[in-house]
Amino acid sequence: MSDYMVAEREQNLAELAYTQIKRMILEKKLPSGMSVVEGRLADYLDISRTPVREALMRLAAEDLLVKQGSRSFAVRNVSATEFFQAVHIREILESEAIALSFERLDRAVLAELRRDIVELGKTPDQTAAQWQLDDRLHRMFPRVSGNGVLLRTIDELRTLTRLCEVTYPLGRVPSSTTEHLAIVDALLAGDRDAARAAMVTHLRNVAADCMDILRGG
For residue 204, what are the contacts with CB-CB under 8 A and spacing of at least 6? Predict the structure, then answer.
Protein backbone atom coordinates (compact mmCIF):
# COMPACT_ATOMS: atom_id res chain seq x y z
CA MET A 1 0.00 0.00 0.00
CA SER A 2 1.43 3.40 -0.99
CA ASP A 3 2.15 6.14 1.53
CA TYR A 4 -0.66 8.17 -0.06
CA MET A 5 -3.18 5.38 0.41
CA VAL A 6 -2.08 4.87 4.02
CA ALA A 7 -2.44 8.59 4.73
CA GLU A 8 -5.87 8.69 3.08
CA ARG A 9 -7.04 5.68 5.10
CA GLU A 10 -5.83 7.28 8.35
CA GLN A 11 -7.63 10.50 7.44
CA ASN A 12 -10.88 8.61 6.77
CA LEU A 13 -10.56 6.77 10.08
CA ALA A 14 -9.91 10.05 11.91
CA GLU A 15 -13.09 11.51 10.39
CA LEU A 16 -15.03 8.38 11.38
CA ALA A 17 -13.66 8.56 14.94
CA TYR A 18 -14.50 12.27 15.15
CA THR A 19 -18.09 11.70 14.02
CA GLN A 20 -18.66 8.77 16.36
CA ILE A 21 -17.10 10.39 19.44
CA LYS A 22 -18.95 13.65 18.87
CA ARG A 23 -22.23 11.74 18.59
CA MET A 24 -21.44 9.90 21.82
CA ILE A 25 -20.93 13.23 23.58
CA LEU A 26 -24.05 14.88 22.19
CA GLU A 27 -26.23 11.85 22.90
CA LYS A 28 -25.00 11.63 26.50
CA LYS A 29 -23.09 8.38 26.09
CA LEU A 30 -20.11 10.45 27.22
CA PRO A 31 -21.62 12.94 29.71
CA SER A 32 -20.09 16.25 30.76
CA GLY A 33 -17.09 15.89 33.06
CA MET A 34 -16.45 12.28 32.07
CA SER A 35 -12.86 11.29 31.34
CA VAL A 36 -12.16 10.30 27.75
CA VAL A 37 -9.09 8.09 27.41
CA GLU A 38 -7.54 7.62 24.00
CA GLY A 39 -6.67 3.94 24.37
CA ARG A 40 -10.08 2.91 25.71
CA LEU A 41 -11.88 4.76 22.95
CA ALA A 42 -9.64 3.18 20.32
CA ASP A 43 -10.51 -0.27 21.68
CA TYR A 44 -14.22 0.56 21.87
CA LEU A 45 -14.36 1.93 18.32
CA ASP A 46 -11.99 -0.77 17.02
CA ILE A 47 -9.79 1.91 15.46
CA SER A 48 -6.07 2.46 15.93
CA ARG A 49 -4.93 5.14 18.36
CA THR A 50 -3.57 7.61 15.80
CA PRO A 51 -6.92 8.54 14.17
CA VAL A 52 -8.60 8.56 17.60
CA ARG A 53 -5.93 10.95 18.87
CA GLU A 54 -6.53 13.23 15.87
CA ALA A 55 -10.27 13.14 16.51
CA LEU A 56 -9.82 14.01 20.18
CA MET A 57 -7.54 16.93 19.34
CA ARG A 58 -10.12 18.21 16.86
CA LEU A 59 -12.91 17.94 19.44
CA ALA A 60 -10.73 19.74 21.97
CA ALA A 61 -10.16 22.54 19.43
CA GLU A 62 -13.96 22.80 19.14
CA ASP A 63 -14.22 23.08 22.96
CA LEU A 64 -16.15 19.83 23.31
CA LEU A 65 -13.25 18.34 25.25
CA VAL A 66 -10.69 19.74 27.68
CA LYS A 67 -7.25 18.21 28.10
CA GLN A 68 -6.59 16.35 31.36
CA GLY A 69 -3.29 14.62 30.72
CA SER A 70 -0.97 13.49 27.96
CA ARG A 71 -3.43 10.88 26.69
CA SER A 72 -6.74 11.81 28.25
CA PHE A 73 -9.42 14.44 27.99
CA ALA A 74 -12.70 15.21 29.72
CA VAL A 75 -16.02 16.21 28.23
CA ARG A 76 -16.41 19.93 28.74
CA ASN A 77 -18.84 21.35 31.27
CA VAL A 78 -20.84 24.34 30.00
CA SER A 79 -21.69 27.05 32.50
CA ALA A 80 -25.24 28.32 32.92
CA THR A 81 -24.11 31.77 31.76
CA GLU A 82 -22.72 30.37 28.51
CA PHE A 83 -25.89 28.37 27.96
CA PHE A 84 -28.24 31.34 28.29
CA GLN A 85 -26.01 33.59 26.21
CA ALA A 86 -25.87 30.96 23.46
CA VAL A 87 -29.65 30.43 23.46
CA HIS A 88 -30.18 34.19 23.14
CA ILE A 89 -27.92 34.36 20.09
CA ARG A 90 -29.66 31.28 18.67
CA GLU A 91 -33.00 33.12 18.86
CA ILE A 92 -31.62 35.83 16.61
CA LEU A 93 -29.79 33.59 14.15
CA GLU A 94 -32.28 30.74 13.86
CA SER A 95 -35.26 33.03 13.33
CA GLU A 96 -33.25 34.82 10.65
CA ALA A 97 -32.35 31.44 9.10
CA ILE A 98 -36.07 30.75 8.70
CA ALA A 99 -36.50 34.08 6.90
CA LEU A 100 -33.55 33.40 4.59
CA SER A 101 -34.63 29.86 3.74
CA PHE A 102 -38.39 30.46 3.54
CA GLU A 103 -38.67 30.63 -0.27
CA ARG A 104 -36.43 27.59 -0.74
CA LEU A 105 -38.05 25.15 1.65
CA ASP A 106 -39.51 22.01 0.11
CA ARG A 107 -43.09 21.42 1.26
CA ALA A 108 -42.71 17.65 0.83
CA VAL A 109 -39.67 17.69 3.10
CA LEU A 110 -41.59 19.76 5.65
CA ALA A 111 -44.54 17.35 5.52
CA GLU A 112 -42.23 14.37 6.06
CA LEU A 113 -40.53 16.15 8.94
CA ARG A 114 -43.92 16.86 10.50
CA ARG A 115 -44.87 13.17 10.35
CA ASP A 116 -41.61 12.22 12.04
CA ILE A 117 -42.08 14.84 14.77
CA VAL A 118 -45.54 13.46 15.52
CA GLU A 119 -44.34 9.85 15.52
CA LEU A 120 -41.30 10.43 17.75
CA GLY A 121 -43.39 12.63 20.02
CA LYS A 122 -45.30 9.53 21.08
CA THR A 123 -42.22 8.47 23.08
CA PRO A 124 -41.73 10.86 26.01
CA ASP A 125 -38.12 9.84 26.69
CA GLN A 126 -35.19 11.73 25.19
CA THR A 127 -33.64 9.14 22.87
CA ALA A 128 -30.88 9.31 20.28
CA ALA A 129 -33.59 9.49 17.62
CA GLN A 130 -35.05 12.53 19.38
CA TRP A 131 -31.68 14.31 19.37
CA GLN A 132 -31.24 13.48 15.68
CA LEU A 133 -34.67 14.85 14.85
CA ASP A 134 -33.86 18.02 16.77
CA ASP A 135 -30.68 18.38 14.71
CA ARG A 136 -32.60 17.77 11.51
CA LEU A 137 -35.13 20.52 12.17
CA HIS A 138 -32.78 23.17 13.52
CA ARG A 139 -30.08 22.62 10.88
CA MET A 140 -32.53 22.58 7.97
CA PHE A 141 -33.08 26.35 7.86
CA PRO A 142 -29.46 27.55 7.82
CA ARG A 143 -28.54 24.70 5.46
CA VAL A 144 -31.31 25.52 2.97
CA SER A 145 -30.48 29.23 3.23
CA GLY A 146 -27.18 28.50 1.49
CA ASN A 147 -25.25 30.58 4.05
CA GLY A 148 -22.38 28.36 5.16
CA VAL A 149 -21.18 30.77 7.84
CA LEU A 150 -24.66 30.87 9.35
CA LEU A 151 -24.85 27.07 9.39
CA ARG A 152 -21.45 26.70 11.05
CA THR A 153 -22.24 29.35 13.65
CA ILE A 154 -25.58 27.79 14.54
CA ASP A 155 -23.95 24.34 14.71
CA GLU A 156 -21.37 25.67 17.18
CA LEU A 157 -24.02 27.31 19.36
CA ARG A 158 -26.23 24.23 19.27
CA THR A 159 -23.31 22.05 20.30
CA LEU A 160 -22.66 24.32 23.28
CA THR A 161 -26.28 24.32 24.41
CA ARG A 162 -26.59 20.57 23.83
CA LEU A 163 -23.74 19.95 26.26
CA CYS A 164 -25.70 21.76 28.94
CA GLU A 165 -28.97 20.01 28.04
CA VAL A 166 -27.45 16.54 28.38
CA THR A 167 -25.91 17.55 31.71
CA TYR A 168 -29.25 18.78 33.04
CA PRO A 169 -31.91 16.68 31.25
CA LEU A 170 -34.93 18.88 30.69
CA GLY A 171 -37.49 16.18 29.89
CA ARG A 172 -38.84 18.39 27.11
CA VAL A 173 -39.93 15.82 24.52
CA PRO A 174 -43.68 16.62 24.83
CA SER A 175 -43.05 20.38 24.90
CA SER A 176 -40.50 20.28 22.09
CA THR A 177 -42.87 18.20 19.98
CA THR A 178 -45.59 20.85 20.32
CA GLU A 179 -43.14 23.70 19.69
CA HIS A 180 -41.51 22.03 16.68
CA LEU A 181 -44.94 21.37 15.19
CA ALA A 182 -45.81 25.05 15.62
CA ILE A 183 -42.74 26.00 13.57
CA VAL A 184 -43.41 23.47 10.80
CA ASP A 185 -47.16 24.15 10.66
CA ALA A 186 -46.54 27.88 10.27
CA LEU A 187 -44.20 27.15 7.37
CA LEU A 188 -46.68 24.78 5.74
CA ALA A 189 -49.29 27.53 6.07
CA GLY A 190 -46.92 29.95 4.32
CA ASP A 191 -46.60 32.23 7.34
CA ARG A 192 -42.97 33.21 7.65
CA ASP A 193 -43.47 35.63 10.53
CA ALA A 194 -45.39 33.06 12.58
CA ALA A 195 -42.64 30.49 11.95
CA ARG A 196 -39.98 32.95 13.12
CA ALA A 197 -42.01 33.77 16.23
CA ALA A 198 -42.54 30.06 16.93
CA MET A 199 -38.79 29.45 16.77
CA VAL A 200 -38.11 32.26 19.23
CA THR A 201 -40.83 30.97 21.56
CA HIS A 202 -39.37 27.45 21.40
CA LEU A 203 -35.86 28.60 22.32
CA ARG A 204 -37.10 30.86 25.11
CA ASN A 205 -39.07 27.96 26.56
CA VAL A 206 -35.95 25.78 26.48
CA ALA A 207 -34.07 28.49 28.40
CA ALA A 208 -36.92 28.90 30.88
CA ASP A 209 -37.09 25.16 31.58
CA CYS A 210 -33.35 25.03 32.09
CA MET A 211 -33.58 27.96 34.51
CA ASP A 212 -36.25 26.09 36.50
CA ILE A 213 -34.01 23.06 36.83
CA LEU A 214 -31.00 25.13 37.88
CA ARG A 215 -33.18 26.78 40.54
CA GLY A 216 -34.29 23.38 41.78
CA GLY A 217 -37.78 23.68 40.34
Answer: 87, 91
**CA pair distance 175, 134, nearest whole angstrom:** 12
At 171, give phi and psi (nearest 5°).
60, 45
pLDDT at 111: 98
* Least-confidence region, from 4-8, 10-14, 39-43, 152-156: 4-8
Q: Decide: pTM greater than 0.85.
A: no
- b/e burial code for range 73-84 (CB count within 10 A of at least 16 → b): bbbbebeeebbe
